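REQUEST ID: PR-0412
SUBMITTED BY: lab tech R.K.
PRIORITY: routine
TASK: structure prediction, single protein chain
INPUT:
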Amino acid sequence: MFEANCAAQRLGSSLVQRDQRADEGKRQVRVTRNDIVIARRFAGIAMMVSVPVRAYRGVALAVETAAEGGAAYRLSLAHNDPDLDIVLAETRDSAAVAADWKYWSAYLDLPRLSEEDGKMLPIEAPKGASLAIERRRNAAVFKRRPRFLARRKTGEASRGETVFVAEREIICYE
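STATUS: complete
OUTPUT:
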């Protein structure tokens, strides 16, 4: 039963997941470091939702008993709204799911969560250093004016026009 309910299949850089309320019963999910983009059709209307990664509580691992015996693992992004939960992987291989769990936690810089008694408990907080190296901006270069504005003169308050407050302008065309 668990294998038949496989909700996510990798197609390039996006995931196709089952969605009960969407037309055709599926939605497309794109996962990046900064945001999660969910696209689906609902009542004939195409909609796309972009959720920042920081809105998710963490990368959750749920363990269920399979129909044939043994354990089945589900790796997902946990959100306070269950409609925004994203299934990343479903497998029976404990070594593969452990590696994926660690990878997704580091990639998205989110804590790893474990489901116990219906509650999500954090295993450990993220290290704070994601896999991508942040680009360092030189303070001297960052504070410069852009090239096309460097040729222009900066504004001076004395060159501004006088503004009369609470007066009306009367225009007569003859």
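NOTES: The longest strand covers residues 35-42.
REVIEWED BY: pending
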